[in-house]
């Protein structure tokens, strides 16, 4: 049929209006089209029926106040549908189209049948499904020849209507086939774009994904979700965001399920479709879907009204946090991005305890301890309010889903936060008083509210952290009458921890460490052996056993234990590269090696002790080199997520990789095994050769013994140099502004690094001093002072140096500086008391030494010995005898390094 140019132009504009659902223009277009094309009556009435159905649907939705937001709560078993329209509202349009069907072309008749079927499905007529089947019975869907333009959208409409009809008839598998055909057709015709095409395509892909989940086929559902997502990237940004949020919610859960099962499939050598999903790929995909989910949900989620909970936000954040645990901790940028995600969620909720709990744990993991304490306090305040509400009988037993919807925390969750709060206060903030309060509150919760639940791990950690808090308080006590009771309570707590979890090695380790501090050596040996029987690779336990043997003066066995224990570590550098284990394990390994060096000194003397020193400096640079995972882009950062085609994620074989380069330092990056850091290779050139120290030393130490003072040149500390070199020259100055503030974790690590490095230099100084190589000893002390000028041991060692040289006046100045930095420095106070005694100031000596032995010098044999000398001088022989015997007992059980200085109180 040949149409005039005018008719062709009108038809083109008419179809364009239909593709946009511009109903207001339909009547005029229909009139003009029929005027210029007498055979176009079918097409015109088809469009008028579309208009009637569309307007009736909009009217019905408005009457019932139905919106797309109803889809936010969709599940595979319950999918929200637009309300049906009354059949009489479109009866005239249907009858008019049916009356003229015979006057149109075959093509127009087929498309009219599709619209009639769509109209029948939209009504509430009892025979609606039969009428749909009647209209579509003679139409091939999909057709052999795919049309273009709006007719293509009608084909997609027909397939969608067919699928929905099959779905309502219970023929789910056939419905899915119809929906999947739509995905194939639309994907094969990327140039076809229209509003109506988007509408029907979205509808079909949405239902296909949900139906596959209903059938339990998660892998097929993931593929449909990916197809939906890839199509959504081409849709208008505000198009059906509620349904997108729902898709991403179920998509994220399906991906998490696939990631959890991926390992078992790969281990079993599966060759089915599951083997097409790889952990690294799924990790990236999950992070991306989290970003789209958050964007979509927040676009349709207002701030809650009074007494209203944004439970959908809580569901999302819980899923993101759970997925984060599944994927892994990631790098520093990942941790920061997670914190920012939770902060954004807090802006869509109001005083949510669940959000505060997630925020607390994320801040602790990130190392932002000051903010974590604020989150902890806020959370516990809200938990206290919840407890009061429950005491009134309002709070019944709730399921997990009900708790999420009502934003009510379980007693188990509250107790978990209290236990972690105790660890935070004790380990990171060195506040044993608050640590003890949190641990005791946790134990009260367990006894009162968690009876009958599986609380083994909670109970174990609560008692363990309670014991450490008591131990710290006892060590720091200045009232000697309090210390025994605090230590006894620590022992009791550790024993209860072991009772709660006998197979946990760390309970036995903590007990052994406490017994060691109390000089109950034989009991400590038995406890640490029990720890090693449960975990033979635990370096601190081997370390403690070695120190216990040195306290028994069995140096040869202690040396053998050092050799055996160090071989158990992943930081045994001849076997690994140093990055296969955590940095914390590296620090434990280095501490053990330092003890081994001290033991070598004890056995073979200072001349031989120089040999392991350089190796310790090399090891230090590897342990405290910057962690590669500290740098790189975040896998989770919404602003930086690469919005890409999800079909890139699914790979065809084991050799496939994720499209795009893995981010440096992220959980996907592959760490090089060629070495831990360039710093270790260049250490000698930096002047760490102990026999040839550096020529450029700071002059502040020298100024103690001379009137002149030179302006020193500030050298880069090895720890900082290691960080700079390993990170490829990155510094805080050239990092993005948003992440310039260092975390509490990084500050503490730098402090530990400086303290360890200063300790190494002071060990070298001690060796040189005992070898009478005073110039080299002085240079080593200067280097230690340059690294950590606030370390009182630096000034104490300088005092010992000047004392060995007979310069007692300058030595006294050095000791005074040490005491100014640490008023309770035991070795310094003992030296000062000894100086008073030698100068004949018996009363001053007694005051200094008695205060020392009552406080933190309670276990110092030197302090007790010189106090005994004071009593002997003043002819109080009975007191002197007691002090001498106690000093002898302490000396006979003294290890080569103090237990609590060499070993960690908290293991993780």
UniProtKB/TrEMBL annotation:
The keyword Calcium does not apply. TPR repeats lie at residues 758-791, 792-825, 861-894. Residues 649-659, 669-689 have a biased composition (Polar residues). InterPro entries: Endocytosis_PI4K-reg_protein (IPR051722), TPR-like_helical_dom_sf (IPR011990), TPR_rpt (IPR019734). Gene3D superfamilies: Tetratricopeptide repeat domain. This is TPR-like protein. It holds the Pfam family TPR_8. Involved in endocytosis. Keywords: TPR repeat. Belongs to the YPP1 family. It comes from the Eukaryota. Residues 642-692 are annotated as: Disordered.
């Amino acid at each position: 049929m040949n149409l005039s140019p005018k008719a062709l132009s009108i038809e083109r504009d008419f179809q364009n209006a239909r593709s946009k659902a511009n109903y207001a223009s339909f009547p005029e277009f229909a009139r003009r089209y029929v005027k210029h094309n007498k055979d176009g009556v079918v097409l015109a009435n088809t469009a008028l029926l579309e208009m009637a159905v569309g307007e009736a649907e909009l009217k019905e939705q408005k009457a019932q106040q139905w919106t797309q937001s109803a889809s936010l709560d969709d599940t595979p078993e319950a999918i929200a549908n637009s309300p049906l329209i009354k059949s009489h509202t479109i009866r005239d349009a249907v009858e008019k189209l049916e009356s003229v069907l015979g006057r149109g072309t075959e093509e127009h008749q087929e498309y009219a049948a599709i619209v009639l079927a769509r109209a029948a499905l939209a009504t509430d007529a009892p025979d609606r499904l039969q009428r749909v089947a009647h209209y579509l019975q003679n139409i091939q869907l999909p057709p052999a020849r795919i049309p273009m333009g709006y007719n293509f959208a009608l084909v997609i409409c027909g397939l969608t209507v067919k699928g929905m009809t099959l779905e309502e008839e219970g023929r789910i598998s056939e419905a899915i086939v119809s929906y999947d055909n739509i995905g194939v057709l639309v994907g094969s015709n990327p140039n076809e774009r229209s509003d109506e095409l988007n509408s029907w395509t979205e509808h079909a892909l949405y239902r296909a994904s949900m139906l596959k989940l209903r059938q339990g086929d998660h892998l097929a559902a993931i593929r449909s979700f990916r197809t939906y997502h890839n199509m959504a990237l081409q849709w208008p940004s505000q198009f059906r965001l509620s349904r997108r949020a729902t898709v991403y919610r179920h998509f994220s859960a399906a991906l998490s399920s696939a990631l959890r099962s991926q390992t078992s499939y790969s281990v079993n050598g599966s060759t089915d479709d599951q083997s097409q999903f790889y952990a690294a790929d799924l990790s990236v995909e999950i992070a991306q879907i989290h970003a789209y989910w958050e964007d979509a949900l927040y676009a349709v989620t207002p701030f809650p009204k009074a007494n209203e909970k944004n439970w959908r936000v809580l569901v999302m954040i819980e899923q993101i946090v759970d997925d984060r645990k599944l994927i892994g901790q990631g790098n520093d940028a990942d941790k920061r991005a997670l914190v920012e995600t939770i902060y954004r969620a807090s802006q869509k909720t109001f005083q949510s305890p669940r959000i505060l709990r997630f925020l607390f744990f994320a801040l602790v993991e990130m190392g932002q301890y000051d903010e974590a304490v604020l989150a902890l306090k806020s959370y516990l305040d809200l938990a206290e309010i919840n407890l009061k509400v429950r005491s009134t009988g309002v709070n019944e037993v709730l399921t997990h889903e009900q708790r999420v919807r009502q934003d009510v925390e379980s007693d188990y969750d509250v107790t978990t936060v209290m236990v972690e709060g105790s660890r935070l206060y004790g380990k990171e903030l060195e506040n044993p008083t608050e640590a003890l309060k949190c641990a005791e509150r946790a134990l009260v919760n367990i006894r009162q509210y968690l009876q009958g639940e599986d609380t083994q791990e909670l109970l174990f950690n609560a008692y363990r952290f309670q014991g450490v808090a008591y131990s710290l308080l006892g060590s720091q006590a200045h009232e000697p009458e309090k210390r025994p009771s605090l230590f006894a309570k620590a022992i009791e707590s550790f024993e209860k921890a072991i009772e709660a979890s006998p197979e946990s090695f760390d309970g036995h380790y903590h007990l052994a460490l406490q017994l060691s501090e109390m000089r109950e050596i034989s009991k400590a040996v038995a406890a640490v052996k029990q720890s090693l029987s449960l975990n033979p690779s635990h370096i601190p336990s081997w370390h403690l056993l070695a120190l216990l043997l040195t306290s028994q003066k069995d140096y040869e066995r202690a040396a053998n234990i050092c050799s055996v224990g160090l071989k158990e570590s992943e930081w045994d550098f001849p076997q690994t590269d140093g990055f296969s284990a955590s940095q914390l394990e590296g620090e434990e390994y280095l501490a053990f090696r330092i003890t081994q060096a001290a033991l070598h000194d004890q056995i073979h003397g200072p001349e031989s002790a120089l040999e392991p020193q350089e190796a310790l400096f090399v090891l230090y640079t590897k342990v405290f080199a910057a962690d590669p995972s500290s740098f790189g882009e975040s896998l989770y950062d919404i602003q930086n997520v690469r919005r890409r085609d999800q079909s890139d994620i699914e790979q065809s074989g084991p050799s496939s990789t994720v499209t795009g380069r893995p981010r440096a330092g992220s959980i996907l990056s592959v760490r090089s095994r060629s070495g831990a850091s360039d710093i270790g290779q260049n250490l000698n050139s930096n002047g760490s050769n102990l026999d040839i120290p550096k020529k450029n030393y700071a002059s502040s130490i020298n100024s103690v013994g001379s009137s002149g003072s030179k302006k020193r040149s500030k050298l880069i500390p090895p720890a900082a140099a290691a960080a700079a070199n390993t990170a490829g020259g990155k510094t805080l100055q050239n990092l993005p502004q948003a992440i310039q503030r260092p975390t509490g974790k990084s500050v503490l690590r730098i402090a530990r690094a400086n303290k360890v490095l200063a300790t190494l230099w002071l060990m070298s100084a001690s060796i040189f001093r005992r070898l009478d190589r005073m110039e080299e000893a002085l240079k080593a002390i200067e280097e230690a002072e340059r690294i950590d000028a606030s370390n009182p041991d630096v000034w104490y060692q300088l005092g010992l140096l000047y004392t060995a040289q007979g310069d007692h006046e300058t030595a006294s100045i050095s000791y005074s500086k040490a005491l100014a930095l640490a008023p309770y420095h035991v070795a310094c106070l003992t030296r000062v008391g000894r100086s008073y005694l030698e100068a004949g100031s018996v009363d001053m000596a007694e005051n200094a030494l008695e205060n020392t032995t009552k406080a933190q010098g309670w276990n110092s044999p030197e302090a007790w010995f010189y106090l005994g000398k004071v009593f002997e001088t003043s002819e109080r022989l009975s007191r002197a005898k007691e002090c001498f015997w106690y000093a002898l007992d302490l000396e006979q059980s003294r290890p080569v390094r103090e237990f609590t200085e060499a070993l960690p109180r908290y293991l993780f």
